[in-house]
Amino acid sequence: MHPYAGSPALGTATIDLAAIAHNLRVVADAAEVGVIAVVKADGYGHGAVPVARTLVGAGAVGLGVAQVAEALALRAGAITAPITAWLHTPDTDFQAAIAAGIDVGVSSSRQLAALVAAAEHLGETATVTIKVDTGMNRSGVARDEWAGFVDDFARARAAGAVALRGVMSHLACGDEPDNPANTDQADLLRAAVADLNAIGAIPELVHLANSPAALTRRDLAFDTVRPGVALFGLNPVPQHSRADLIPAMTLRTAVSLVKHVPAGGGVSYGHGYVVPADTVVAVIPVGYADGVPRALSGRLRVRINGRDFAGIGRVCMDQFVVDLGPAGGGVTEGDEVEVFGTGADGGPTAREWAELTGTIDYEIVTGIGPRIARRYVGGLA
Ligand SMILES: *Cc1c(COP(=O)(O)O)cnc(C)c1O
């Protein structure tokens, strides 16, 4: 499952599919509605097809992705569940989307017109989810375009070019459960649905809540919730929800090299770290091209044989160095290295990396690069 199949990958992300199925149940129980599972960006770096298969098998009512190309890749992987794709450009291939039975999320009358043209060309009816901008001011039909959009939608529907499946919007502040913007957005979504009902268009599914809202705002769940990150076991609101989520990805590699560095020796580019006393180091063969942020230079730790060892010097494109101490810590070349994992045993986690580098764990897992093999456990993938 990596593009260099001639020799084993140096790093492996083990994906626990049983954890993903468990996380789906946790989120569904919190929200008390069905789940449209978001598997964009290659399933947040976990591998979209095996993850989607697992989530559908565990009861997800549908799947969500950003791009039509992502939806088509799921179809190519024999995923037959409903899929909604909601981010397009004027070049997006809506004919391919319609032919593959993709539910197209539209954010403007221009997108609707392009979808209608594709449907008419094929002589088919396109399935549509209307994406409403209720205040995030990103995707979704803009407030000042809404009345015109509803007219255009009524005409397209009357012509048989489109059938309404869903109405959706996205929260700007879902990770702040008490932010009044969340309730305001829900009110505007309800008003949009009422406008559609007034032209006789009744959506099957209305959805607003992302992971943090699904975990904390039962009142914003509508017909279904649309979580992504929580399904992978990463809790975006740990201070508000004690949901029993299990991180699904563990990144491992093997020690490449063990060697002595004498006192005063500088380590890695720029000699940013100089060893204060004779020591033994290990070379860890994953780097920023594999998703280990360079900003973690001198700040990360890894687990080898159940012990923590600190990274020293700069993280490079392909590798970084850890200090094993003067006695070498009993580490030998080839020993397994846990770069990050579930944290259940106190080891490093994607969240720890995110906190150290001023980002969110979403960015850590989606950044795991193509040289890292994905290995699936705990399921049928
Ligand atoms: C990414 C995304 C989601 C999922 O968000 P999480 O925070 O990962 O749960 C839901 N809806 C839309 C429109 C998205 O872009």
UniProtKB/TrEMBL annotation:
Name of the molecule in the record: Alanine racemase
Q: Which PROSITE patterns does this one have?
A: ALANINE_RACEMASE
Give residue numbers for the modification (N6-(pyridoxal phosphate)lysine). K40
**Requisite cofactors:** pyridoxal 5'-phosphate
The reaction(s) catalysed by this protein are: L-alanine = D-alanine
Q: Which gene encodes it?
A: alr
Q: Which family does it belong to?
A: Belongs to the alanine racemase family.
Would I find Isomerase among this entry's keywords?
A: yes
What are the top taxonomic ranks of the organism? Bacteria, Bacillati, Actinomycetota, Actinomycetes, Mycobacteriales
- The scientific name of the source species is Gordonia defluvii
Cross-referenced SMART domains, in alphabetical order?
Ala_racemase_C
Per the Swiss-Prot or TrEMBL record, the active site comprises K40, Y269
> Has keyword Isomerase?
yes
E.C. designation(s) = 5.1.1.1
Xref: CDD domains: PLPDE_III_AR
Q: Which NCBIfam families match?
A: alr
